[in-house]
Write a structure and sequence with these properties.
The protein is of the alpha/beta class. 22% of the residues lie in helices and 12% in strands. A four-stranded mixed β-sheet has the order 1-2-7-8, with no helix packed on it. A two-stranded antiparallel ribbon has the order 3-4. The chain is globular.
Length: 308
């Protein structure tokens, strides 16, 4: 079952036009997801056919994916700060250095996590936020597309644009695009699935039928625009066994690092309210942030004085 973990905090201040637009766009995105995304691996409206149908010819496409080289970044840096005074301070006893608590400079904080590693996270949620075409719903059939098809302008019929992006100002006139988080399924073969590109072919649209989930190339493009990634379901039948889930966390992380060099996952979106995943996450140091469907600690802006 698809789940959308939506967390929002409101302060008693009037929401300006920008925030009204953000809220409206978020509602449009969530409405799309709730109406058109199911847990089925195939589009049942067309007899269960997928984009691999032999009647949908495949053309060669030369798309080359790009991913920022996270592995080249410096890690575990040490910063030394030198303070030069006018001589009035004679001893270090007069100095008291502290790190200020986390603050927010916005009156409204909204976070969105989309579960189940679904293709809609790319061609609907990400697309709507970043001003890309939104895949369509035609004649009771949902259509989806992949990054290779977008690059070739090979899109489902009746795809359309919202005409705006979703973001906020950094205070200096620059747009900061809204970043959501999608979960991955790193142990699943469908993330390595191929896609068909055949611009102009209209005899059928099997190539736009829903795949089993997100593909690595789609995820790479999303990461380039700031989308976050998270763990969710693990490929184990022992879902009540902490040791099994812990083992699969490492397998999943290894797969993520292989396909997204230098970029691992640090977040868990608890699946199906299963607290065994939370218990295993507490023993897996890579996971530093968790979201849960119940039993979690609530955090509020301007009231958080400890390390998140």
């Amino acid at each position: 079952m698809n789940q959308y973990i939506i967390t929002y905090f409101c302060i008693n201040k009037s929401i300006g036009n920008v925030m009204k637009f953000i809220l409206k766009t978020i509602l449009i995105i969530v409405s799309f997801l709730l109406l058109h995304v199911s847990c089925a691996d195939k589009d049942l409206n067309k007899g269960g056919k997928t984009d691999d149908d032999p009647n949908s010819p495949v053309t060669t496409q030369n798309y080359i994916s790009y991913l920022y080289n996270y592995s080249s970044e410096n890690t575990n840096n040490t910063v030394e700060i030198s303070i030069i005074t006018d001589g009035a301070i004679q001893t270090t006893k007069d100095l008291d250095l502290t790190i200020p608590p986390l603050k927010y400079n916005k009156s409204w904080l909204f976070m969105l996590t989309q579960d189940d590693c679904k293709q809609a996270a790319y061609c609907r949620t990400w697309a709507a936020i970043n001003g890309r075409p939104i895949s369509s719903f035609v004649d009771s059939t949902n259509y989806y597309y992949d990054v290779e098809q977008l690059a070739a302008d090979d899109l489902p019929p009746n795809s359309y644009y919202l005409g705006k992006t979703l973001g906020s100002s950094d205070g200096c006139g620059n747009e900061v695009r809204f970043h959501f988080t999608t979960t991955l399924s790193p142990e699943s073969d469908f993330m390595n699935a191929t896609t068909s590109v055949n611009k102009g072919f209209t005899n059928n649209y099997y190539r736009f039928f829903m795949k089993s989930g997100l593909r690595w190339n789609n995820v790479k493009e999303m990461l380039n625009f700031g989308t976050g990634i998270a763990f969710h379901d693990m490929n184990t039948t022992s879902t009540q066994n902490t040791d099994s889930i812990l083992k699969h966390y490492q397998i999943a992380q290894d797969s993520i690092l292989k396909n997204l060099p230098g970029r691992g996952a640090k977040m868990l979106a608890e699946p199906n309210g299963n607290k065994t995943y939370v218990a295993a996450a507490n023993s897996f140091p890579d996971i530093q942030t968790l979201t849960a469907q119940s039993g979690a600690v609530e955090l509020y802006p301007f009231q958080t004085t400890t390390d998140l």
